[in-house]
Amino acid sequence: MRRLLFLPLALLLAATLPAAASEPYTVGAIFSITGPGSSLGIPERDTARMLEAEINARGGVKGPDGRLHPLKLVIYDDASDETKAVLAAKKLIDEDRVIAIVGTTLSGTSLAILDTTQRAEVPVVSCAAAAKIVEPAAERKWVFKTPQSDALIVGVLVDHLKARGLVRVAWAGVDYAFGQLGWLAFEKATQAAGLTVVANEKFAQKDIDITPQLTRIKAAAPQAVVVWSIPPSASIATRNYADLGLKMPHFQSHGVGNKRYIELAGPAANGVSFPAGKLLVAEQLDDRDVQKPVLIAYARDFEAKYGSRNTFGGHAWDAVKLVVRALETAGPDRAGVRTALESTKGFVGITGVFDFSPTDHNGLDRRAVVMVQVVDGQWRLAK
Amino acid sequence: MDAQRRWRLLGAVGLVVAAVSYAVPSSYVLGILVFVALNGLAALGLSLVMGFAGQVSLGQAAFFAIGAYASGLFSTGLGWNPWLGVVAAVAAGAVAAVAIGLPVFRLSGLLLAMATLGFGVIVYYVLNNWAAVTGGPSGLTGIPPLSVGGIAIDTDARALVLVGFVLLLALGLAGNLVDSRVGRALRAIHGSEAAAASAGIDVMRLKLAVFAAAGGLTALAGALYAHYVRFINPSPFGIGYSIELVVMVVLGGVSSLPGAVLGAAAVVLLVEALRALVPALGASHGAAEYEIVLFGLVLMAFMIFLPGGLAGGRRRAA
Amino acid sequence: MGPAELGQYLASGVVVGGIYSLIGLGFVIVFGVTRIVNFAQGEFVALGALVLATLSARGVGLPLAFTGAVAAGVAAGMLLERVAVRPLRAMPSLAILIVTIGASIALRGGALLVWGTDPFAVPAFWAGPPLVLGGAVIVRQGLWVLGAAACVFALLWAFFTRTYAGAAFRACAANARGARLCGMRVDRMRLAAFALAGGLGAVAGAVIAPITYATYDMGLMLGLKGFVAAVIGGLVSPAGAIAGGVALGVVEALAAGLVSSAYKDAVAFVVLIALCLAQAAGWVPWRVAEEG
Amino acid sequence: MSAALLEARGLGRDFGGLRAVNAVEFDVHAGQIKALIGPNGAGKSTTLGMVAGAIVPSRGGVRFEGRPLPAGRPHAVAARGIARTFQLVQLFGDMTVLETVLVGCDRAGRAGWAACALRMPAMRREETRLHARAQEILALVGLEARAALPAEALPYGEQRLLEVARALATAPRLLLLDEPGAGLDAGERTRLAGLVRTVRAHGTTVLLVDHHVAFVMDLADDVLVLCHGEKLAEGTPDVVRRDPAVVAAYLGEDAL
After folding, report:
1. Looking at beta carbons, which residues of chain B come within 8 Å of A119?
2. Domain ranges of chain C
3. Does domain C3-280 have CATH number 2.60.40?
4. What confidence tens digit (pLDDT) does each residue in B260-300 have?
5. Which of A313, B86, C12, C257 could hold A47 in an S-S bridge, CB 3.0 to 4.6 Å?
6. Reduced to 3 states, what is the DSSP secondary structure of residue A275?
C-alpha cells in the first residue's frame, strides 16, 4: 500500500530534480559492529547511515558533471576480526565495485586490509587510530585516517600534566593495541617533556579487578595516574581507584569518550580528566571556534536518533564527509578520489580541521584535542 | 580409496583450482577460496589429532599463530628468504607440539583437552605481551610475499594456486599415510590403545608424532596466512579460532581428512553467506551475531545427530 | 613493599577468589555426578548477571530480581541437559565436552542477540563506602560474594552429607551403573545436577555483577578461571573448589602485585598446565578425578 | 632342564589397600603350555597383566630369556617377543579382519612416516609381504575366508580367534591368553584348544589364564593355582588335581 502511495510522489520528485536519473556513487564501509570493537563500530555505522540518508535527502552527491548522484553506502561488519575484514574489503572492491572504502574501526583490521586495498588501488579512510596505518605516507599512498594519532592525544595530555607540575606519573594500560600504542606514545612524550614515569602496569579488557595494579601504583607514590583503556575495564579501574582512596589526579584516555563510561563508573568518575576531541564539550567551546557549529549540529542529529554522542561516530562522520567531498571534485574515479583526498585543505570536521598532504594522511594538529573533565557526571571543558 | 585414484582425484581438483584462479577475476571469490584452503590445512592437522590420536586439542590456534609469527619474524626481523621462514615455522609448530604433548599425553582426554586450551591461552598472552619481539597487540607489518621461481605470490589468484597446491599435496600425503602401516597403527590406537600396545605399537610415541605432524601442518597454514595477508597480530589466533577449528573438523567428520577441508569450506562459506543474507533480511543486528548462535547450534547438532560429519563417515568423535 | 600493600593484594585476591570459587562449584557439581566437564558453566554466570541487570533496571526489587536470575540459570541448566547432554550420555566424555562447547557458543550468541555488546551496571546490594580492614580495602559487594560462596558451600555440604538425596547423588557419582541397579533414577539425578549447576552459576553471576558489570561475553574467561579453581581442588570436591578458587585469586593478585601485571591472566593457565603435568608425573598429593 | 623362558619372582600388586597379588613366583619353560587357574578374584588376570607389561608390579619382577621385562610398557614387552589376547575382546573399531592382523604385523614393517606418505617402492613391496603374511596367519586360525569382513561383524568365537591371530602376527616366542575360553561354546572351545596346540607345535610357548578348569587341565602341561593372590599349588594337571589345598579352595566345584 505504502509503496503505491510513494511511487507517484517519487516520480514527481524525480521530474523536478535536475539529475535524478544519474548513476549512484557507491562507497564501501567496514565497521566492527560485533566483537570487542563494537562499542566503537556501532556509533560509526549509525553515523554513516545517518549521513547517507541526509545526503540523499538533499538529492545526493553533486559530481563534477554537475549532476546529483545518490550515495550508496555498502556497510559490512568485520566482527573485529582481521580475516573477515580482509574478505569484506575484497568483496567491496571486486563485487560491489566501490569507489572508496570507509573504515575499518580497529587498528588491527585496518592494518590487515592494507595490502589488499593498496594493491587494488582503492582509497581508504580509516576510522582507527594507529599511526602505522598511514605512516609513512609515501608507502601508504591510498590510506588516510580521521582519528587523532596517539602522539597528538598523548602530547596534549603530557603538556597538561607538565603545566600543572605533575612530574612523577604512573601509567596503567589495557593489554591490547590501544593500550600498547598509547604507552609507546606516552613513554616518548614524557621523556621529551622531562616527566618521570614511576610505574607502568597492564591489565586485560576482561579483568574484573584492577586493584592489585593500582595498589602497586599507590606504592610508587606518583603525583598523577594515567589509565589508558575503554569501558568496561576503564570504568572498573576508575571505581577501584576511588575504592582504594587514591587522591592524586586521575587521567584517562579518549577511549572513555562516551556516556557509558560514566554510567558504569558512577560517582567514581567525577574528577577524572582525559584528552579528547571537542565533540563532547561542543556547547562549551569558544564561539570563535570554527568547529563549534559543525559539532553542535552533528551532536544534535545523532542524539535525536541514537542516544548520547561519542567521538567514535565523529570519526566516521569525518571519513564519509571527506570521501563525499572528494567525489564532488573527482567523480567515480578511484585515483581521482585519492588525489582529491590528499589535497584536502581546511576541512572542518568533527575530530578536527583536516589538512592532508602527500606526507601527512592524518592531517590533524593539536587544535583537534582538548582536555575534558567529568564533573557531576557531565563533561566539562578543562581550562 | 586406493592411492592411484586418490592422486588422480586430487590432480583433477588441482586442475579445477588452477582453472578457477585463471578464470575468476574477483579477488573476493579467490580470497574466500584462499581462506578455505588455509583453514582446511589447519583443520587437516587438527583432524589428525582428533580422528587418529583420539584426542581433542582446544589450543590448535596456538600452532597457527606459532607458524605465522615464526615465518613472519624470520622473514622481517632476520630478513630470511620467506621460504626458509616457512620451513622454520613448520619446525617450530612441530617442536612446540612435542614440547606440550610430551608431558600432557599421559593425561586422560578431558584434562588433556583443557591443558591444550591452557596452552593456547598462554601462547596468546606471550604474543600479546612480548612486544619487543612480536610487536605486541598492534602486530607485525611488512611481511614479504612468498615467491616461486621469481614470481611473487602477491595476487589472490597466485595465492590460491600456491595454497591450493600445498593443501592438495598435504591431503594426498596424509591420505597415503593413513592407508599405510603407520596409518593402520594410528587407527589401531584409536580403536584400542591396550590392544595396539600389545601388538608392539608404541602408543605414546605415535600419538606424539601425530600431534607433532598436526602442529607442523597447522603452523604451515599459519605461515602461508602470514605471507598472504602480510600483516599478523595476535587477535585472530585466540580461543575463538581454536574452537572454530574444532567446529570445522566435527562438521567434516572427525576421521575424514577431506572432511576437514569440507568443514573449513562450510564454515567460511557460512560466514560469508550470513554476511550477504543478514542485511538483506533487514535485521538490525550484525551478521556475526547470528553466526555465533548458528555455529553453536550446528556444532551441537552435528555431534548429536551426524557424528560422521558432512563426509558421512561412520566413526564418532574422540 | 610494605605490609599495607601485601594486605591489599590478599584482600583483593580473596574477593576475586570467592568469585572463582562460586563458579568452580558449578563445575564440581556436574563433574561429580556425571563426569562431564560442562564448558557452558560460564554462560550460566553471564545469564544470571544479565537477567539481574535487566530486572533491576526495570525497577524490580533485588530479592525478586535475584530469584529471577537464579530461575533463568536453573532453566538453562535443565535445557542443556535435556537437549544436548542426554542424547549423548552413552558417548565418550570428550564428545560431550564438544557438545557443551557448542552449547556455550549458542548461549553466548543468544545473549548477544538479546542484550547486545554493551556492559550493564548493576547497583551494589549494599550501598556504601568500602570497608577498611587493617589498611586493606574491601568493597561491600565483596562480602556478598564471600558470603554467597560460604552459604552455597554450607548448603551443598549439608545436602551431600546429611540428606538421603545427597547420598544418592554421591552414589551416582561413584558408580552410575551400580546406582541404577539399586533402583536410583540416574537420569533424573543428572538433570538435577545440571539444574543445580545452572542455578549456582546464576547465583555467582548475580552477586558478582555489581563488581564486574554484566556483559554477554563475561562467561568464557570467568568459566575458565572457575574450571581451574575446580581442578586445583580435585574437580569433585566442593571444599576443594572453594580452596582452589581462593588460592587462584590470591596467586593472581600476588602475581600482578609482586611480579608483573602483564601476565596476570596467564597465571591461571600456567597453574592449570602445571597441575596437569604434576598429576601425569604423580607428584600431587591429591588427584584430579579422572573420567569414570 | 634348561633355564626357564620366563621367570616371575616375588610378584605382587596392590590396589589401594587390597593385595591383589602377593609373592607369586613361577617359571614358564620354552615349548610349554602353562596355565594359571584359580577362583574369581584370585589375581590371575592381574598376574598376566604384569607379565604383559600392562600393569606395573608393586613388588618383584619378571625376567624373559634371562633379562628383566620393562614394567608398565606393554609395547616394549611385545617387542621382546611376548604377545597377548584380552579377557574382553579388544578390536580396532571399524577395521577389517585382515587389517586387524596387519596391525599385529606392524613390528615386521620398517617403512617410516616419510616412506609411507610418499609410497616409496620399498614400502609398497613391504606392504605386499605383510599382506601375504597376514593371510597365512588367518589361514592358520581358519579365518582366511573372512579376511575382508569388518572384524566387529564376526561372531564372538571368531573374534577371539582373530585376537589370537593378531597376537601370532607379532611372531611371539611367548603367547599370553587371558581367559581365551570365556563365552565360547563346547565346539568353539575344542577348536581353540586345537589352535593352541598347533601354535605350540610351531614353537611358541603359551601361558594362559582361565577358570574353566576342565578345559585347562586337558590342555596344559603345567598348572599354577592362585588363590587370594597367592600361589596355592603348581605342577602337572594330575599333581594339582590331587593337591588337598586346591581341593579345599575349589570345594564345591565339581570340575576337579
Report:
1. 154-155
2. 3-280
3. no
4. 999 999 989 888 887 777 665 555 556 667 778 888 888 88
5. A313
6. strand
